Amino acid sequence: MQQIIQDIESRFTITDKETRRNDLCFLTVDKLQAISLVTYLRDYQGYASLTLLTAVDWIEEGNFQLTYLLNNPSTRTEIGVRTMIDRENATMESTHHLWENIQTYQRELKEMFGIDFPGSPRIDEDFILEGWDNIPPYRRDFDTKKYSEETYFPRPGRETNDPSTYMKSKLYPND
Amino acid sequence: MEKENKPQDIPVVKTKNFIAPENEKRTVTAPDGSLIEVDPINDYFCQERPEEYKVKSGAVEKFLNWARAESLWVLGFGTGCGSIEIPPLVTPRFDMYRYGVQMRPTPRQSNVFIISGYLSVKTLKRAIRSYEQMPSPKYVIGLGSCTINGGMYWDSYNTINRLDHYLPVDVYIAGCMPRPEALLAGFAKLKELIKAGKAEKANEYIRNLDWYKANQKKIIKDWNMPDYNW
Amino acid sequence: MDIKKIFQINNDRSSYPEIGEDGKPIIDLSSHKYVKIWQGPQHPGVTGNMALELTLSGDEIVESKTHVGYLHRGFEKLMERRKFIQCFPTCVRLCVAEPDPNEYLLATCVEELSGIEVPETAQWLRMLVLEMSRLQVLLRGVPGQAGTFALGLGYQWGSYIRDLILDRFEELTGGRVYHMYILPGGVRGLLPDGFKKRLEENLKLADEFVKNINDLMFNNIVFKKRAKGLGYIPKDYIDRYGVYGPAARAAGVMRDIRKTHPYLKYAELDFEPYTTTESDVYARSVVRWHDLKMTIDLIRQIMAKMPEKGEIKAPTPNVMHWRIPKGETYVKCESSRGEYGMYMVTDGSDTPRRVNLKGPSYTHANALLEKLLINANIADTAGIMVSLATCPPEIER
After folding, report:
1. Based on the structure, what is the number of domains in chain C?
2. pTM for this structure?
């Protein structure tokens, strides 16, 4: 694992690295280098299997984090390639030429986060939602509770308590 | 069931009339070469409004109700996770056949619709179609807490909270997940209601059709079917 | 009108679909050579609530598209606004057929990110619950494969024994389908008195079932004729399409997290997952049948080796104020369908920043199924789909 990371560091500019376990580490690279690093790992280091591609919304910094998690079946290790893309104009190069299954992930990200992958097959078709006209639901600024209350006639009589204050008032009423 | 908002309170929400490509007007070439104009929404679907069921006189209606109660045919549409507890009902341990309940593969042959758990908006559209295609007399069982008040997914953006705003529900079965015995109890309750002539929710659906349709169209954004799917 | 012309049937289907210049078939629905059929969401032949959009030429599929999203509840969004302990009742409902791996993955993510060690007894109990959960899935899944070829008897047998296993779950955890037994730091309770004896009685029935289902399915000429050679997965699809678990092992590739990345106490158990190389529906059902046999054996081994008493829960912070430092991790375990993983990102607050669940169905039911259905017969659709063990709720979550 350490050898591979050193090898990658000699070829790519790694801005941040985090070793989680012996068989799992995360590397952060620039948006421009991400696809070439993923391709390099797949073709030369044996990380042939894509475990997942997903996004994290860092709304405070105005970024989306994309994570390509790659698995090497022979050495039984995993490398996560992280890259930050701009939240305003979220576009990323498509990698559907590397794996056949990645187009599903890209369709989901397009629908749920609004990250565009130009050229990916069937990217504009509905994947999970149907006729959705609000902001993409997995973005942090979308409030699911507010949307649900406005749209789906909540049944009256539900009491919602904040768990920590409610437990405190029940367990320690004198405090 | 008490309605907080009466049928006339809610104005009909005007939705963008979205027509699927296969339902657009077009000209088709017949195998013999002649041209035929096709307007699928008007030609293929019935546009009539449904009519209410008129109750027969005394003993006849009683006999009919007895017959209805003793053969409940359930539509095999697992709309949510409650569908995992329906297969055990068919096996010898619970054996719902002895109560005259059995599963059917198509809406045209069934008269009980079990909404098994949460309904996402996408499934709700199909559930409405399936429900309206079922021949009368028809009954709906809401299975699980999700159909009553949203249950686990009360704050989800994609699941409905109250089923009775979209489809008429005769019997609710509470719990997450309700046991097969609870389902059998639900069937027993439904039989009781039918025999007493109180399972009238299908009629209520037709009476308040505008209210139900307004609710349905409020959340189904791409409404691309006729108002009532015969 | 020329009647003859209308009913003229062209039996030679070798000429179409014609392949265009870009290598894709040219499918013109108005040419009367093709018909488009939706299988699902209301269809007895699909697993769960999903839809297949099939374009047929005769009864042969020339194009297929999977449509999912009928069961989308927005779990990942809902978990972002719940505290870590509140995530557990939500998370367990991710996949109804096999709920325990969800609990295990969430608990392991939380433990790993906050650095909690799980006591030994709790690890054995977790393993027991996971294997029992796998057993109840396979008791339905193995005969369910025969059910897609209209052999419904085995399903009735399997469902009966599954009910007995669910009774044991009820005894141990209080829940029949959803258990919520695994908590961060450990499990909720020790085994009740006499539990092992009652479970052993059920396992004896399961043993008999394994023998009977072998006679029923694998010596049945109808099942053999229909399943052999159906839905072949070449070995190079494994990485390109993402094939996991029994489907990969049927293609001769060892994919079993219990063996390759031993978690909990699996390293102390003696087992060898079965692999074969035929890679068709028949081979996949044989692999799952061997899995069923192995699971029964594993439960016996666990019951023999596990300590009777001991600490079952490590101390955790006050769950109402539990803040987990910033970090991210990916943990995985072996479900009955294959690799089941969870990716969690935390940001130092009391709720997860992002949770993403990756199940094998995600790739099996989308890219792989669409590919395998091409040139298959429409009657075999359900057989191929069930052999890949697709579970729609884990695709769309």
Report:
1. 1
2. 0.86
